[in-house]
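Section 5: illustrative case.
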């Protein structure tokens, strides 16, 4: 799929007068349209709700846009629970799908009425102690083990991921035990959750996952008498980071899940189970850009362009070797007749946004858009080399630009040293 930025060179030249690069910018229109499409794709399910994975883009302005589109939040930590609460999400609008969870986080989740999704059988007594009771609405994260594959293709089974190696979730036996224990403890609403593959570019992932979970839900009802009220398909629906990939068709995905629902749940008398999702990447990644300026060119054994952003602003290329498409603003139609490594300033040779990338000739002062940074982009930032967190901006539907988080300052960076300069 062709990759086009949602901002022009002219817009960026205007924005940098008040907000110097680097910064992350998000596209409100794109976010809203996409959220509406997801809702439509699952509109056949009465209780459908998307719980946006806050860890992907932890910014209250983004959360509020999604709230207006009918989403809740999915949290993994205390800070994300607090952010959801302060952004106006309450009770059942908050899912708490964490792992290795500290007791004060369970206690706080319970206090604000979030739905707790346990990651292990031992979390039942742990939650009971932390919260003073077992909450009336509880969920379990399932891990089927083994290798998760999608139907056979010419190359054999397409391996999606390896749950047997993943630290998350309960085994099937533990799941049965957990629901029985919940019932004995007076739990009234039960849910199930599983996250088996990440960034899937396939319309078959959710339907395949749904088949596993829906069949298991029927078995749980038969074996324990517990009838689930919701099934959470979690995250994992991906986006095409490179132009050679085609985006998922969310309408087809919704329709695929509906078919399995009709085949498996409805005949078992479970036609009222609510379907939830916990998407992060799919909701936000394409609707964020990291905008950065070319400040150095270097000709040694390779051709380098040094930009004013670094891996501290976007870790995915350094961490996973992830591809992020780059557009040089104003040169969208120029020939890709140069080959560059595009680098940041960290004292780490993996601080490269692109390696051997074909791009138009880059001149100093050119603005580069690094695509698909709206999820797991800013969020994974860090301060290595004393590099500071960038600002986050929002391109409004009417074309205005609103700052939704200021850039970090040197004083912010030193704030945790206040009072400690003369300790020794
Ligand atoms: C990270 C995460 C998500 C979101 O994953 P995406 O790949 O961004 O869709 C959802 N649920 C849980 C529990 C997660 O850890």
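Designed sequence:
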């Amino acid at each position: 799929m062709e990759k086009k930025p949602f901002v022009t060179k002219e817009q960026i030249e205007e924005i940098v007068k008040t907000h110097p690069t680097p910064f992350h910018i998000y596209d409100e229109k794109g976010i809203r349209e996409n959220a509406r499409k997801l809702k439509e794709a699952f509109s056949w399910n009465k209780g459908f709700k998307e719980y946006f994975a806050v860890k992907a883009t932890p910014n209250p302005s983004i959360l509020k846009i999604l709230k207006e589109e009918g989403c809740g939040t999915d949290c993994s930590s205390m800070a994300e629970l607090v952010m959801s609460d302060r952004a106006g999400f309450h009770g059942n609008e908050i899912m708490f799908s964490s792992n290795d969870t500290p007791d004060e986080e369970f206690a706080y989740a319970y206090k604000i009425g979030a739905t707790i999704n346990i990651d292990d059988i031992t979390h039942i007594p742990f939650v009971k102690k932390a919260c003073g009771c077992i909450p009336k609405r509880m969920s379990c994260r399932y891990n089927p083990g083994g290798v998760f594959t999608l139907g056979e293709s010419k190359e054999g089974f397409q391996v999606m991921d390896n749950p047997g190696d993943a630290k998350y979730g309960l085994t099937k036996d533990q799941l049965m035990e957990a629901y029985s224990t919940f019932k004995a403890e007076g739990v009234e609403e039960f849910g199930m959750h599983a996250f088996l593959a990440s960034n899937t570019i396939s319309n078959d992932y959710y339907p395949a996952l749904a088949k596993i979970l829906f069949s298991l839900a029927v078995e749980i009802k038969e074996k324990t008498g517990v009838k689930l009220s919701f099934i959470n398909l979690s995250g994992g629906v991906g986006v095409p980071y490179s132009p050679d990939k085609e985006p998922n068709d969310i309408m087809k995905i919704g329709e695929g899940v509906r078919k399995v629902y009709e085949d498996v749940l409805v005949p078992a008398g479970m036609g009222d189970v609510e379907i939830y999702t916990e998407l992060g990447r799919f909701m936000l990644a394409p609707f964020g850009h990291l905008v950065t300026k070319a400040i150095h060119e270097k000709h040694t054994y390779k051709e380098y362009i040094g930009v004013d952003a670094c891996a501290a602003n976007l870790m995915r290329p350094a961490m996973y070797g992830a591809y992020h498409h780059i557009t040089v603003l104003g040169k969208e139609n120029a020939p890709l007749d140069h080959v560059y490594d595009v680098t940041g300033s960290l004292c780490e040779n993996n601080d490269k946004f692109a390696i051997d990338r074909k791009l138009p000739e880059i001149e100093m002062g050119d603005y580069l858009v690094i695509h698909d940074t709206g999820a797991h982009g800013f969020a994974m930032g860090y301060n290595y080399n004393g590099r500071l967190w960038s600002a986050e901006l929002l391109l409004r539907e009417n074309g205005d630009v609103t700052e939704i988080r200021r850039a970090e300052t040197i004083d912010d960076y030193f704030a945790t040293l206040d009072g400690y300069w003369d300790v020794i």
